[in-house]
Amino acid sequence: MNNNKSIIAGLFAASMMLASCGDDFLEVKNPTGEPLEEYYTTDEHLNEALTSAYAPLHWPDWDNQAYNDLTVDAEILGDDFWPGGASNTDNEHWHKLFNFEASGNYTLATLWGDFYSGIKRCNDCIKYCSWGGGTERNRSSFEMQARLLRVYYYNILWHYYGNVPFYLENLTIPYTAPQLQADEIYAQLLPELEDIIASKVLPMRWDAANAGRVSQAMAYMLYAEMVMYQKDTARYPQALNFMKEIIASSDYNLMADYAALWEESGEWCQESIFEINYNDDQGQRDWGAAALNAGGSVLPTLISPNSWPGGDGWDAGMDGWGFLPVRLETYNMFAEGDVRRDATIWDVRGVEYTERYQDTHLWLKKYRPQTANCQDNPGSKNLNYNNNKRIYRYAETLLNAAELILATGGSSSEALGYLNQVRNRAGLEGYDECNMDNIINERHMEFCGEGKRYFDLVRTDRAATTLVPDNYGYRTNSWTPSKKHIPLAQSELDADPTLVQNNY
Question: 35 CB contacts (<8 Å, ≥6 apart)?
Answer without folding.
Answer: none
